[in-house]
Amino acid sequence: MSARPSLPVSLVLGGALVAALTAAALLSLVWTPHPFAAIDVANRFQGPSADHWLGTDQLGRDMVSQLMAGARTSVAIAFVAVVLGGAIGTALGLLASAVGGIVEDAVMRLADFSFAFPALLFAIMLAAVFGPSLANAIVAIAFINIPVFARVSRAAANQVWTREFTLASQVAGRGGFAITVDHILPNIAAPVIVQATIEFAVAILAEAALSYLGLGVQPPAASWGRMLSEAQTLLYLAPQLAIYPGLCIVAAVLGFNLLGDGLRDITDPRLSRRP
Predict the structure, then answer these.
(1) Does domain 9-25+62-267 have CATH number 2.60.40.10?
(2) Peptide bond into 220 cis (omega under 30)
(3) What are the tens digits of pLDDT across the range 19-31?
């Protein structure tokens, strides 16, 4: 009997990091060691203890509670932004592939035009124009995801349109919409999902950057980016205030990138056949 193929290390490690992040975010909905926004100036800059596992910040807020609430903010914004941007971008990519011609050219040229601007800078510009808020941060991050998903879905769909079963459906007289729903969409789901995991990492970085600049979620909501911003003037006095949220951002981005690489390895037949 042949041995079952083992899962890629990147998939296992990335899945573990993402699971820990998600668990912390979900747990913060019902429990944190202390109210994350509770200020206790008398106990500021406390070191790790049984009451405050990672100490307190410059306002006496519990660091663990702040980090857990920040994980909730990052996961919520990334999830909504990626789903929204992915849905619109995938729909545009499918439309471009199914219709072709001038529609395909227009969609792809718009995508190319958007890539001329750095994604993070574009998100900062949108948030600055429309004002700092949770909703505007989500819209800005979702907007930069649309051209990415449009290109990925259009490229994958073009390959499926040349397959025999798709050509047979066309010969049988089925319309482009029916073929797209029944055949194209299920067959491009894998690359779109892989891209979504990678875009989660981009969304978390973008949310942290916007909050760092004061253009993301506003107080009293917790955010890793704003924690970094508040700690930058205290690096010599309390460097841990910047180290903790920085490590959380690194772990979250690394986890989603590794998860995306692992999913790509097991869904791409060309990669799965590598010795």
Answers:
(1) no
(2) yes
(3) 999 999 999 999 9
